[in-house]
Every structure is written in C-alpha cells, then in structure tokens.
Write a structure and sequence with these properties.
Blueprint lengths: L2 E7 L5 E4 L5 E7 L5 E5 L4 E7 L5 E5 L4 E7 L5 E5 L4 E7 L5 E5 L4
Antiparallel strand pairs: 1-2, 1-10, 2-3, 3-4, 4-5, 5-6, 6-7, 7-8, 8-9, 9-10
Length: 107
C-alpha cells in the first residue's frame, strides 16, 4: 500500500507532515549539527535523523535502531531507503517550500 504525505515548513525550521486526508501525521524539529527529531501525531518522540556523508541522512527509531536512510536524488528530490537499502519512497519539492513524499510498501 502506498502512502503520500505533504511536508509543510514551520516558522522555526520545523516541518509538519500531513497525510492524504489532511490529518497531522507528525512533526520534525531541527536538532544539533543538522540533526532532526521526529514526533508522531500525539507529540511523542518517534525517531531521529542524523546527517551522513554526501548529503545523506540516517534515520533511527527512538531506541536508536537504524530504520533507514535518505540521499539526494535528481532535480532536488530525496530518495528514502529502508535499513536493507531497498528504495521505499521519494520526496519531491512542491510550492512554497512544501514537499510531496510518496512511500511504497507497508511502512
């Protein structure tokens, strides 16, 4: 099953993620040294994004287990992979600094 989210920038570098029905699915806020902290729709910590090499990001769950990564793609896209290196989604730039994020599979 595929899922689509829209990421909308907040005033302080945060992002708000909305599902296809317009319901808030989660948020992220900037951390130290380019990292991000992700929160679920209830405001609980869901995971972390840590900068990697060559513009990549490594994602971990709240317990520190690696859940995937992302790297820059062509034309300002971002490609998401699971912990086994399989492509799971793509983020495409939208209007007014938004992003459309499409995930395939059950994640």
């Amino acid at each position: 099953m595929s899922k689509r989210y829209t990421a909308v920038p907040g005033p302080d570098g945060s992002k708000f993620y909305y599902d296809e029905n317009g319901k808030l699915a989660g948020t992220s806020v900037p951390g130290f040294f380019g990292s991000e902290v992700f929160y679920d729709e209830n405001g609980k910590t869901a995971g972390y994004g840590t900068p990697g090499l060559f513009g990549s990001t490594v994602y971990t769950d709240r317990d520190g287990r690696q859940k995937g990564s992302s790297y820059p793609g062509l034309f300002d896209t971002t490609v998401f992979q699971d912990e086994n290196g399989r492509t799971k989604g793509v983020a495409t730039p939208g209007f007014w600094d938004t992003e459309q994020i499409d995930f395939n599979g059950d994640d």
